[in-house]
Amino acid sequence: GRAQVVGDILHTAMQMVNESPAEARYEPAEWRAAFNNLVDSARTQINASAASRHLGDPRRWPELTDVYRRMTNVLGRRRRSDGVKVEVHAERELRSRDRLLFGRIDAYFIHSGRIEVVDYKSGAVSDGEELPKEHEEQVYFYAYLIEENYGSYPGALEVIGRDGTRAVEPSPERSRKLAND
Questions:
Q1: 138 vs 72: CA distance, rounded Å
Q2: Confidence label for 127 from pLDDT (cuts 50, 70 and 90)
Q3: Strands 156-160 and 165-168
């Protein structure tokens, strides 16, 4: 359905970010054109299948604005304002050392020995409102996987939704307990 198409476009867009050279400049017009090509490709696939035509034209889907914003958010974090290069990882699957636990992290950034984890939500995440427990637990689980893979617990965790950003207090203890449970 529609959610699957949106998810496919998101994953492909983030993969494009991962595959682009870290030193490449972020040129908004080029990335917008690449994103539009993804959407046009989805439109072609929808139109080619009689069973999918009811989905309509993805160029008119408002949720793709969120997908584009996520992609540009990740691209915009590649270089901080102070000139420090940032290692960007988007839509990466990480596994625990014992290979029993895994997850696909929306994005994480490494710079100056610090790791920041970001989870993007398609719904509202408003400043001042309590973050749903499942969103918080997901970010803690991702932080656990980061620590397992990099030997360092993230210094920042955040959830970005349609309406805002919420910081989650880093807690290695909570992450480990969640993973052990």
A1: 22
A2: low
A3: antiparallel
